[in-house]
Amino acid sequence: MQPVLWIIIALLLAGAIMFASSLKTRRTLPPLELPDGESLPKTALQKRAAWTLLAVLGLTATAAGCLVWFGPQAWWETDGIRHLVTGLLLAALVVFMFFIRGVRALESLDDGSFDERDSAILNRSCAGVGGAMMVVFAAWMIGLTEAHMPTRLIPSYFLYLVFWSLVMTNVIASLAGILLAYRRG
Questions:
Q1: By the 8 A CB rule, do 14 and 169 touch?
Q2: What is the rounded distance in angstroms from the CA atom of residue 136 to the CA atom of residue 166?
Q3: Residues in Cβ contact with 69 at an 8 Å cutoff, skipping those fewer than 6 apart
Q4: How much is the pTM?
Q5: Are 88 and 59 in contact (CB under 8 A)?
Q6: End-to-end CA separation in angstroms for the chain
Q7: Residue 185: pLDDT above 50?
Q8: Which of 29, 39, 41, 166 has a CA-to-CA distance to 151 between 20 and 30 Å?
Q9: Residue ranges per structural domain of the chain
Q10: 8-47 pLDDT, tens per residue?
Q11: Contact at 8 Å (CB) between 22 and 128?
Q12: From the centroid of its chain, how far is CA 158?
């Protein structure tokens, strides 16, 4: 199996871990009772997190697609491709930075758009990030070790890919944690 496919498997496992941790969190929250046919409207934090996650996933998937299309070695040896992929990932981080700045602005408003529930969800949203990053890192290590077992030499450009995959896993898992915390089972 190619090392790039290991990251896809790791991301799926990380998503499963995030979902399992959110189930545990949901069980500790008191149930919300609403009249029949009524649902809670989406909060400003929830809307921002959803749009940010969509943008970050799109940019990250485009960068991953470029990497898979050209291959890791061609990506490393061709400056244009490497700059494109790095630019897409940096753009995803800028989108996340604007999300964080927007959340801080929401917190400072006194109009009720950010309440205690939002604060609690934001504080708990990173609960699964460490686990997700460990799964991604383990998948990289297993995949790289198995793929390069005959020579026992792993090309150094994979370190760059491991770094970026862990950074993007952190961002995606943080945003997914916010959205999963709003779900009620």
A1: yes
A2: 7
A3: none
A4: 0.78
A5: yes
A6: 37
A7: no
A8: 166
A9: 3-21+43-182
A10: 677 677 777 767 776 666 555 556 677 777 777 788 888 9
A11: yes
A12: 20
Q: How many residues does the chain have?
A: 185
Residue pair 55/95 in contact (Cβ under 8 Å)? The answer is yes
For 98-143, write each residue's pLDDT tens digit.
999 998 888 888 787 788 878 888 887 887 788 888 888 988 888 8
- The pLDDT tens digits for 50-101 are 999 999 999 999 999 999 999 888 888 999 999 999 999 999 999 999 999 9
Q: How many CA atoms lie within 13 A of 54 on its CB side?
A: 6
Q: Where are the alpha helices (DSSP H) in the chain?
A: 3-28, 44-70, 72-77, 79-108, 116-124, 129-147, 157-182
DSSP 112: S
Per-position DSSP letters for 20-55, written without gaps between them: HHHHHHHHHSPPP---TT--PPPPHHHHHHHHHHHH
